[in-house]
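User: Hey, quick favor. My workstation is busy. Could you predict this chain's structure for me?
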Amino acid sequence: MRCALHPNTETNLTCGKCGQPICPKCLIQTPVGARCPECAAVKRLPVYSVPRIFYVRAVAASLITASALGAVWSFIPFGGFFLLIIAIGVGYAIGEVVSFSVNRKRGRGLQVIAGSSMVVSYVVRSLLDTPLPNFVDSFLNVYGLIALVLGIVVAVSTLRGN
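Assistant: No problem, here it is.
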């Protein structure tokens, strides 16, 4: 017999439902036996299928949250090591707001939105923290950049699947 999907491949396997010949490359093991891709009906988990409207909600919620937290962050007088702790909190808050706004869905697109929003929050903080001519010095602060990366990691990992 030849595989229905790969005509150059010899096989003795058949789909447990429709009887179509399948090779090990296209075989999908299910709890009830080997199936062809059509009969297995492989679908993504519902938590990872994110409709477009949810992306719009995630962007709106994350930008509002990032702007507000960036503004509040600029008034917190602590720097150095405390900047890292504050960034972790901001990243976690942004990740949770994005997750809540899309009914706890997960996915790479939502992770990008959360990470980008952390950058927005850091830019807002840097703009409000120092006058405009010194913005670059505030933005390129070593502790600040480490805090930004740490915040991005926390925001993205909040939306990562288990």
